[in-house]
Design goal:
- Strands 5-4-18-17-16-6-7 form a seven-stranded mixed β-sheet. A six-stranded mixed beta barrel has the order 23-27-24-26-25-30. Strands 10-9-8-12-13 form a five-stranded parallel β-sheet.
- Helices cover about 30% and strands about 15% of the residues.
- Helix 5 runs parallel beside helix 7.
- The protein binds ligand MGD (2 copies), iron/sulfur cluster (SF4) and molybdenum atom.
- One ligand MGD binds next to helix 19 and strand 17.
Length: about 700
């Protein structure tokens, strides 16, 4: 099952969901591979950001896992693949026998390919559980919920290209594309701004998005610097302003939507003054932004983690949908509600069913007809009740869940209230981790399997605007590592050793051929048809070109109408008080990536920020007596970290801002593990915190070798 080449290969950057094409040039020795630009790559036409250019740096890093490891008496020892596989199969069989299949949890990986996630969820379901999830839960789960319910599909309504060509207003709320989706920002959105588009940024923090458009320096653009967790009141001010001024699209509301009256009722007694004060933004500024959006020919909303990662995440996004629907800004180029998806393959990981409530193609597990149609292809029964989400699996560990199979996730660092996550991991009877590095999570495992990296294998990934693209690999760096797909096939065939061959596939293409049979929106695709350009889903039949924007004529809801629903302010579950007077929020940096397993090991990426820090407003710094560059301890009800303070007006007064990228001072020791009731996403973006000054520096992050 190899996909190794000696010539340069065209593949896709392994970091974010933009899906830029890059080339990998194999060297004399396997580890010598180099990055090369791919001049006519479909998404980025040769441009890349700092992460794409540095991506090959970690492929041959000295920390790569090279052999399977088994823990004995608390220490890891090298083991053969045979031993590792036997242990996994024995333990998974034992757990199913002693408890039941729901005593296992399976984590898919948005860093791995569609084929691999497809097999992982098939493995979980063959084992007898729907307890399978991926990092989308911590990411855009709430966005996906709102979009699916109110418009039809949990994905961008538009494509980067039509937004570039047609959008007149970019309403960017709780998203920082200047750093998290740099090529979408520079190659697409900035072009529109050069052509005259206006940017409205709604974020408590100023960042490279602010600076890339000179938002704070011109009169055309606006930065509404709100308090974390006040997005509903802010949008309600916008919505009421639109209603008061009759900037609505009456025909669109009448023909394409339902629920408008509910919104009007919700806002009837709404007090704009009081709400603006709650947000910490002058009312006149919000009104001016409302006018810019509502009176534009085409206005597009971009929504990110600042909206989704709240206990009111679904309602946050619903309110953006409300705004788009009442102004008729959906179903045309340059409009819509657009979540820029995070990981290189988070869209695909969801599309292929690595979630507890849906099968491939978002077919509900509790819909008998849908389930049976998949069962027919698979040849085994699928459990008919939705399973647990990943944070729920973590909450149930040691209680109803007794084992975990984790492919390419690092929950000890990425899930909220990390100290408790670690305690619960210790309650588990068996943990298998399949990764490329010895992660903080792998330290807790009983068996660790060394996978090959993105640069060493082939498969497909799906980017943020639903483009399915092929990845291609060059030669393996470490002989004894295995492709994720090969590992899953081997475990599947050993675990279900009944001659069924449900996990026998010659190569990724063979898996894709089965996947497209059960995933309607991929049905028309083949590896050949994907070629170098890729294809946007939905692609129901061969030859379908896919749609660059959705909902031209109707929405994919039961009635075919877009769903408007008024929502009211729900403050974060933890708000400042005397003991914890500051609001802590967490977000990302351009140079680092999620839990940092890759970016912290890349000399180029690690150079600028080798350790974590906290942004503190000058007024707060003065109150606490904090000097710029001084180490401070940030404390929440759950834990504390010691980091350098950056005193800066980038952050709003009363708010502190730190990142989740660094193991030595992990933000998730502080965060609150309360969840949005429907989407089960944690509230990473608001917790109450306190700062202590005059402390010793924390252990700094292991420096990258440069
Ligand atoms: N360089 C880099 N790129 C990445 C990643 C990375 O780690 N590094 N991760 C990838 C992944 S998995 C994802 S999901 C995406 C995420 O990309 P984004 O959605 O851009 O994610 P964040 O940077 O976490 O948060 C976005 C913004 O929300 C703001 N914010 C915080 N609290 C609030 C609030 O209450 N309201 C509002 N309106 N805004 C708030 C933050 O200040 C931040 O500027 O990026 C992807 N791309
Ligand atoms: N405080 C706070 N916490 C957050 C967030 C936040 O904004 N604030 N954001 C949340 C979001 S949006 C997300 S998406 C999650 C991310 O949470 P995770 O998915 O847990 O984080 P990653 O660091 O992306 O982990 C990916 C893992 O895959 C491994 N890997 C990479 N390539 C391969 C491969 O080819 N094969 C295998 N088997 N493994 C591979 C990496 O080494 C790494 O261990 O974090 C969430 N946590
Ligand atoms: S924008 Fe995203 S996909 Fe493109 S090079 Fe940068 S990290 Fe890679
Ligand atoms: Mo994410």
């Amino acid at each position: 099952m190899s996909s190794e080449h000696d010539d340069p290969v065209k593949t896709i950057c392994p970091y974010c969901g933009v899906g830029c094409g890059i080339m990998v040039q194999p060297g004399e020795e396997p580890g010598d591979m180099r990055f090369m630009p791919w001049g006519d790559a479909p998404v980025n036409e040769g441009r890349i950001c700092i992460k794409g250019g540095a991506a090959t740096e970690v492929v041959d890093h000295e920390d790569r896992l090279t052999d399977p490891l088994i823990k004995e008496d608390g220490e890891f020892r090298e083991a053969s693949w045979e031993e590792a596989y036997s242990l996994i199969v024995d333990e998974l069989s034992r757990i199913r026998e002693v408890y039941d299949p729901d005593a296992m949890g399976f984590y898919g990986s948005s860093k791995t390919m569609n084929e691999e996630n497809y097999l992982l969820q098939k493995l979980a379901r063959r084992y007898g559980t729907n307890n399978v999830d991926n990092c989308t839960r911590m990411c855009h789960a709430s966005t996906v919920w709102a979009l699916r319910t109110s418009l039809g599909a949990g994905a961008m309504t538009n494509s980067m290209a039509d937004l570039r060509d047609e959008a007149d207003v970019f309403w960017i709320q709780g998203a920082n594309p200047g750093e998290q989706h740099p090529i979408a920002n520079s190659q697409y959105f900035r072009q529109a701004v050069l052509d005259g588009a206006t940017v409205i940024q709604v974020d408590p923090h100023a960042n490279k998005t602010t600076r890339s458009f000179k938002i704070d320096e011109t009169d055309r653009h606006m930065h509404l610097q709100l308090n974390p967790g006040t997005d509903i009141p802010l949008l309600n001010v916008v919505l009421k302003t639109v209603l008061e001024n009759d900037w609505i699209d009456e025909d669109f509301i009448a023909e394409r939507t339902e629920g408008f009256e509910h919104l009007v009722e919700t806002l009837e007694d709404f007090d704009k003054e009081a709400a603006a004060e709650e947000c910490g933004v002058p009312l006149a500024d919000i009104e001016r932004a409302a006018e810019a959006y509502a009176r534009a020919d085409n206005a597009a909303i971009f929504t990110g983690m600042g909206m989704s990662q709240h206990t009111c995440g679904v309602d946050n996004v619903q309110n953006e949908i409300n705004l788009a629907l009442i102004t008729g800004n959906v179903g045309r180029p340059g409009t819509g509600v657009n979540p820029l998806r995070g990981q290189n393959n988070v869209q695909g990981t969801c599309d292929v069913g690595a979630m507890p409530n849906v099968l491939p193609g978002y077919q509900l597990v509790d819909d008998d007809e849908a389930r049976q149609s998949v069962e027919e292809v698979w040849g085994f029964e699928i459990p008919d009740e939705p399973g647990l989400t990943n944070v729920e699996i973590s909450h149930a560990s040691g209680d109803t869940v007794h084992g975990l199979y984790i492919m390419g996730e690092n929950p000890i660092m990425s899930e909220p209230d990390a100290n408790v996550v670690a305690e619960r991991m210790q309650e588990l009877e068996f943990i298998a981790v399949q990764d490329i590095f010895m992660t903080e999570t792998a330290e807790y495992a009983d068996v660790v399997l060394p996978a090959t990296t993105w640069a060493e294998r082939g498969g497909t990934v799906t980017n943020t605007d639903r483009r399915v693209q092929r990845m291609r690999g060059v030669q393996k760096v470490h002989e004894n590592t295995k492709h994720d797909l090969e590992i899953l096939c081997e475990i599947g065939n050993r675990l279900f050793d009944d001659g069924s061959e449900h996990f026998t596939f010659e190569d990724p293409e063979a898996v894709f051929e089965e996947l497209r049979q059960v995933c309607p929106s991929y049905h028309g695709m083949t590896y050949d048809a994907l070629g170098e350009e890729g294809i946007h889903w939905p692609c129901y039949e061969p030859g379908d070109e896919g749609d660059s924007y959705l909902y031209e004529d109707s929405f994919d809801t039961e009635s075919g109408l877009g769903q408007i629903e008024g929502v009211t302010h729900q403050p974060p579950k933890e708000v400042p008080d005397e003991e914890y007077p500051l609001i802590l929020t967490t977000a990302r940096l351009e140079e680092h990536y999620n839990t940092g397993t890759m970016s912290r090991r890349s000399p180029t990426l690690n150079r600028q920020y080798p350790e974590n820090f906290v942004d503190v407003h000058p007024a707060d710094a003065e109150r606490y007596g904090i000097e710029d560059g001084e180490y401070v301890t940030i404390r929440s009800r759950r834990g504390e970290i010691t980091v350098k303070a950056q005193v800066t007006e980038d952050i709003k007064e009363g708010v502190i801002w730190t990142t989740p990228h660094f193991a030595a001072a992990s933000a998730n020791v502080l965060t609150n593990d309360v969840l949005d009731e429907r989407a089960k996403i944690p509230e990473y973006k608001a917790a109450a915190a306190e700062i202590e000054v005059g402390v010793e520096p924390a252990d700094s992050e292991a420096p990258a070798d440069d």
